[in-house]
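Hi U.,

Before I forget, here's the chain from the pilot set. I'm dumping it here mostly so it's searchable later in email.
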Amino acid sequence: MTQGRCMLQYAVGCVEECPGAACLFWDGEEDACVLAAVRHEFDGRPDVAQYLLEFRQRLACAARAAHVRP
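Structure:
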C-alpha cells in the first residue's frame, strides 16, 4: 500500500514518501498516520513539524537502544 507523502516532511519543505509502519506515528490498527487528525496544527507551521520530526527521531533512537543490551 502506498501512503503518499509524509505530512511532517512536507510541512518543513521536503517531499518524502511516508514511511508507513516504519514510523512511530503510524497506527497499525487503523493503517494510517496518527497525526492526520491534527495536521492543521502543523500545516504552515514548520517549527511544530520540525519539533515532531525531532521527537520521532529521539523516540526511534530510544527504542533501538532499549532493544540493544550489552
